[in-house]
From TrEMBL:
Family: Belongs to the flagella basal body rod proteins family.
Highest taxon in the source lineage: Bacteria
Limits of the Flagellar basal-body/hook protein C-terminal domain: 90-134
Region named Disordered: 74-94
Species name: Hylemonella gracilis ATCC 19624
Keyword Plastid tagged: no
UniProt keyword Membrane, yes or no: no
Gene Ontology terms: cellular component: bacterial-type flagellum basal body, rod
Subcellular location: Bacterial flagellum basal body
Name assigned to this protein: Flagellar basal-body rod protein FlgC
Amino acid sequence: MSMFSIFGVSGSAISAQAQRLNVVASNLANADAVAGPDGQFYKARQVVFETLPFDEATPGAAGVKINAVTESQAPARRTYEPTHPSADADGYVNQSNVNPVEEMVNMISASRSYQNNVEVMNTAKTLLLKTLQMGQ
């Protein structure tokens, strides 16, 4: 494994975490959304990662990639608001199934993973520069 492979691994992880942060932002933006006129509510989305193993035949292929973005199958949150224009016959409004607390935890985790991979790249760069300086 080349020393430069670490940049590919960390780079793919940074890209995957950036996508995860985008999905979290979308979920948080729709946390209080009510069902549309078609009766469909916003469903929380989650990113599913896949590990790419190191392979001598394809250098730089090791890392992380996004396998899928899945929708939560949890039921809609139902709140009793009989005066709301979207209320059903019983006075309930269907809202998105996004849990803001879970999404905030997900956001913090993705942000820290992103920062850790940036730190890995910075450390690898420093080590490579020091190695070059030793050869002078």
